[in-house]
Amino acid sequence: MKLTLVAAIAFLTPSCCEGTRPYGRTLTYNCPVRDGHVDYSQFNPVHDGLRVNTITSLAFQTKGKNDAHILLQNNNNDFEYKVVEIVIGGWGNTLSVIRNKQQGEALCKNEGHVLSSSSLQWFWVSWNGGCVKVGKGPNVGGSQIMQWCGLNFSINGIRFSYGFGSGGTYLIPLPENSPPRHDSSKTSKSSRYRRDTEESEESEDRQ
User: Fold this and answer.
1) Most buried among 15, 113, 197, 198, using CB within 10 Å?
2) What percentage of residues in the chain have a pLDDT greater than 90?
3) Which domains are seen in the chain, by residue range?
4) Contact 124, 59 (CB under 8 A)
5) Which pairing describes strands 166-173 and 157-162: parallel, antiparallel, or unpaired?
């Protein structure tokens, strides 16, 4: 069986790709270089087929110089109320933190260089039993680097971004039973959507 993988990475404009991989479908989010704060609105994994309300953990790969940001949401369309912000490799790739609001106080910290600008690195995030945990590697629960046990709401959405002088890429495996993908960034005029399948490739400008 022939598999088509997305090899080109573009950092000039946001783009979203879906490819077929040995373990199933994968969302690929290419985040542009941002000098300032992150932009959580550029991609919507829930609309792209990730059923966040049916899972309590997620493993993914990412590559970037610094400041990979993940936002866990109670409401998939709310970026401020009832959220948990996870920063991986912030402050020049020297510090990772968990916060209960955007740019809030660090509730948990981990020092050290964890991101790579030259190769994809596996990370995982879990939210269960009132605790948000973050670790390295593809296996949820292994090589944990952070934990905060103050979560008092359900997680129904998740967003990804890079910022503060860095662009980056996220590869997010989807469960086998995920619904067909909906292009969440068609409303973005500066983005491009590219879908790779086993037999065909299709491109269209968006945003």
Assistant:
1) 15
2) 70
3) 34-176 (2.60.120.560)
4) yes
5) unpaired
Q: What is the pTM of this model?
A: 0.78
Least confident of 30-34, 182-186, 199-203: 199-203
Contact status, residue 183 vs residue 194, Cβ threshold 8 Å: no
At 6 the pLDDT is 35
DSSP-assigned states of every residue in the chain:
-----------SS-EEEEEEETTEEEEEEEEEEESSS--TTS--TTTTT--GGG-SEEEEEEEESS-EEEEEESSTT-SSSSEEEEEEEHHHHTEEEEESSTT---SEEEES----SSS-EEEEEEEETTEEEEEESSSTTSSEEEEE----S---EEEEEE-SSEEEEEEEEPPTTPPPP--TTTT-TTEEEEEE-SS-EEEEEE-
Burial class (CB in 10 A: 0-12, 13-18, 19+), 177: exposed
Residue 122's φ and ψ, nearest 5 degrees, are -85, 140
